[in-house]
Amino acid sequence: MPPEGQDIAARAAAREDGNAGMERRADGTLALSGRLDADGAAALWPRVMRGVEAGAQDGAPPAIDLAGITMLDTAGAVLVLDLAGPETRIEGAGEAERAVLDRTRDALAEAPPPVPPKPMPWLAWLGAMVFAAGRSIRDGTAFIGQCLVTALGLLRRPRNLRAADLLRQLDEVGLRAFPLTLLLGVLIGVILAFQSAIPLRRYGGEMFVPQLVGIVLLRELGPLIAAIIVAGRTGSAFAAELGTMTVNEEVDALRIMGIDSMAMLVLPRLIATLVAMPILALLVNLSGLVGMAVVMTGQNFPLISITNTLMQWLTLRDLLGGLFKAAVFGLAIAGIGCRAGLSAGRGPRAVGDAATAAVVGGIIATVVLDGLFAVLFSRLGI
């Protein structure tokens, strides 16, 4: 059978089984046939693109013949309009097909595809990063100033701080974190005792394990573990709660009603965390020492010897220094969580992004502050 007869037979088969087909005639006209719905356009699209690439030097076809199509929807209309150039004639289309083409053409003209942003040069990218960092520092400084002004205002009007909110936040931050704090403290004490006893046993220095674990817990690990617990539990909860209120415009409603949102929403959380953090750090210290004592008594060390060693080497200065660091860590974590919630956006991911920013920011702030305290205590001889 000659090629012309094969093309005619293919088009006839396409009409009968409904499959989409395409033929390029000798004069350059593209003849489409079959069902140009979503499935047909998807099946025909790779072949059309290969034909366009092969005939790119000829430009757009002079005409597109739609006489052979049996069905046309918006997916097929997009395919036809993508093939057609500004001077391409569309022939053989019925009234219904032309209506679909006109609606699709208007929709594409009203909503063009977004243009991908051009990559910024490295200097512009560096400037944008510096500008964003400066804006974040400015906003953080403004938030700290608002907190200080509101806290000083409570000295004149203490009734602005509601006791019920403060007690609720103390329950959330402190009491409900006790089980997790005790569990982690015991595990940390057990791990430190085991890992310290293994290398010290080679030199007969197992007797120094209690003082080593005690000093590490009281000065460093106790406040750090408590800070990580509060950042994961409380900082994210503050950001999620205040972020939800911001998204629902409840914070704006409080301001419209003349209620100080800082005094009502932020200060109770800051004060509760400031009070609860030293208590949580103390629980980590005590439970960690209990875990260490369990390990050491299991290695035939008498409990009275462990107690005497701790009383001999641990001082009140070690304990108070760790508790002071814990209070500062808690204040920073609560402030970062509240600021992340109040500055949340309006999109569906705003609350999740605020909670993530609160946890990450709280942990980073804790590590940075701990490094600053290490340098400060070393200089002061504490």
UniProtKB/TrEMBL annotation:
GO terms for molecular function: phospholipid transporter activity. Keywords: Membrane, Transmembrane, Transmembrane helix. The chain crosses the membrane at residues 177-200, 212-232, 270-298, 319-342, 354-377. InterPro entries: Permease_MalE. GO terms for cellular component: ATP-binding cassette (ABC) transporter complex. This is ABC transporter permease. It comes from Roseomonas acroporae.
